[in-house]
Design a protein that fits this description.
binds shikimate-3-phosphate, five-stranded parallel beta sheet, 8 helices, Rossmann fold, alpha/beta
């Protein structure tokens, strides 16, 4: 349950490869907030990689861990959060944090996301089978509506290099919200 009197979380959402972790680390440092990368915390808790969690424990176990972490964070003061790309479709997890969050959608085309992921795609279990291009398109089609509906701020990232993207996010967040006021 959300509590009154807590500063908001800044939550980055978007496809795998949209830049959530890179942007998250940067804005956490810039705005002097703790940073939580969901996959990192969940890997630490299971003591294994996300890929192995999917294979050995199953995707539902991973989603349950996302939900548990979201619930814990609902009672914490403002962090910068980078959940995995599928968190948005995990409605229970999302419900724990929605009222506590300012949500930033890093919009990227499926082709742009694949390009950014490059070799890193090997660590994403959802891309283990089939054609990555087809899988990314399928994820985009299935999640696009969730991303758009949840977004308080949308940033198109396709044409931005890393530094331009980081500068843009800091500028937009600074002008959009007073991060010190409670939610
Ligand atoms: C997932 C995205 C991954 C990771 C897991 C599931 C998804 O995170 O949470 O492999 O459902 O899109 P990134 O978005 O950081 O790649």
């Amino acid at each position: 349950m959300a509590q009154a009197g807590l500063s908001p979380h800044l939550v980055l959402i978007g496809l795998p490869g949209s830049g959530k972790t890179t942007v998250g680390r940067h804005i956490a440092e810039y705005f002097e907030r703790p940073f939580t990368d969901f996959d990192e915390v969940i890997e630490h808790r299971f003591r294994k990689s996300v890929s192995r969690i999917f294979t050995e424990n199953g995707e539902p176990a991973f989603r349950a861990a996302e939900t548990a972490l979201s619930k814990e964070l609902a009672t914490k003061p403002g962090h910068v959060l980078s959940p995995g790309g599928g968190w948005i479709a995990n409605r229970e997890a999302m419900a724990h944090l929605r009222s506590r969050s300012r949500i930033i959608y890093l919009r990227v085309s499926p082709a742009g996301a694949l390009q950014r992921l490059g070799q890193d795609i090997a660590s994403r279990p959802l891309f283990d089978t089939g054609d990555p291009t087809e899988t990314m398109q399928m994820l985009y089609d299935a999640r696009r509506r969730f991303y758009e509906e949840a977004a308080d701020l949308t940033i198109d990232t396709d044409l931005l290099g890393r530094d331009a993207l980081l500068t843009k996010v800091v500028g937009l967040v600074s002008s959009a919200w007073d991060l010190n006021s409670d939610v």
